[in-house]
Amino acid sequence: MKPRLLLSWSTGKDSAWTLHVLRQEGRYEIVGLVSTVNTAFNRVSMHGVRTELLEAQAKAAGLPIWQVPIPYPCPNETYESAMRDLIARAKEAGVTHFAFGDLYLQDVRAYRERQLAGTGIAPVFPLWGADTHALAKEMIAGGLRAVLTCVDTRQIPASLAGQEYDERLLRRLPTSADPCGENGEFHTFCYAAPCFSSPIPIQTGEVVERDGFVYVDVMPLLGSSSC
Predict the structure, then answer these.
(1) How sure is the predictor about 223, in pLDDT bands with cuts at 50, 70 and 90?
(2) Phi and psi at residue 173, in whole multiples of 5°?
(3) Which of 70-74, 101-105, 130-134, 149-153 is predicted least confidently?
(4) pLDDT by residue (tens digit) across 148-205?
(5) Is residue 137 part of a domain?
(6) Which residue, 204, 25, 180, 8, is CA-closest to 103?
(7) Which CATH number covers residue 50?
(8) What is the CA radius of gyration of the chain?
(9) Which ranges constitute the DSSP H helices of the chain?
(10) Which of 102, 185, 192, 226 could form a disulfide with 155 if both were Cys (CB 3.0 to 4.6 A apart)?
(11) Is the residue at 225 inside a domain?
(12) Number of neighbouring beta carbons within 10 Å of residue 90
């Protein structure tokens, strides 16, 4: 019997590629995708993605979503309490591993490891240490498709919000920017990937600037029944 694993799911490209890698390795039984959802806006935290698109991703991936509701604003102690509730639920379900799509930020990894310390659930980092330039090109060549839903205007141009994550975008990024956005330069919504049964039809809508970030509203394509 394979160990049971949950995957942290932001709706972005790294989450989707992590799922693809985990399935290729075949070491775990993946039992669900974990997403924090902002209850004030009914959107996935930070990426600002509508929950209906989150649900469409889960359907395409063939996995249930384990939603973690959090308020806005969300103090860290409130977030950590919500995560403790999630861990308790996971243990009851026999989950032994929790995977994350982090690439190289040691402080982020250490925080996740502290959260899981002593719980009996081990953290897993399938993409850790990958060269992000090579990884970005591998994802695009492998059929992953995504759009930038949020950009940090202190690090990359606001005009990149809503753009397709492709080779052209990689060329347009400042040389100081990580091509996978690991330093928070941008966040994405993945609408097609090897781990999806079919692409998710989307369109982009309103652009909003808030606290130094530019968000693009990603919506189901009008007339589509996929979502």
Answers:
(1) confident
(2) -70, 145
(3) 70-74
(4) 999 999 999 999 999 999 999 999 999 999 999 999 999 999 999 999 999 999 999 9
(5) yes
(6) 180
(7) 3.40.50.620
(8) 17
(9) 13-25, 51-61, 76-92, 106-116, 132-141, 167-172
(10) 185
(11) no
(12) 24
* C-beta separation of 217 from 208 below 8 A: yes
Taking the whole predicted model, whether its pTM rises above 0.85 is answered as yes
Q: Does residue 90 sit in the same domain as residue 140?
A: no
Query: At which residue do the structure tokens 């026999």 appear?
Result: 94
Residue 140 located in a structural domain? yes
Residue 80's domain spans which residues? Answer: 4-124
> Do 139 and 79 fall into the same domain?
no
- Are residue 179 and residue 82 in the same domain, yes or no? no
Amino acid at 211: D
Helix, strand, coil percentages (3-state) for the chain, rounded to 5, are 30, 30, 40
Q: Give the largest CA-CA distance in the chain.
A: 49
- Report cis status (omega within 30 of 0) of the bond before 73: yes
Instruction: Give phi and psi for 126, each to the nearest 5.
Output: -65, -25
Residue 66, H or E segment: strand 65-70
pLDDT tens digit string along 159-173?
999 999 999 999 999
For residue range 56-91, list pLDDT tens digits in order: 999 999 999 999 999 988 999 999 999 999 999 999
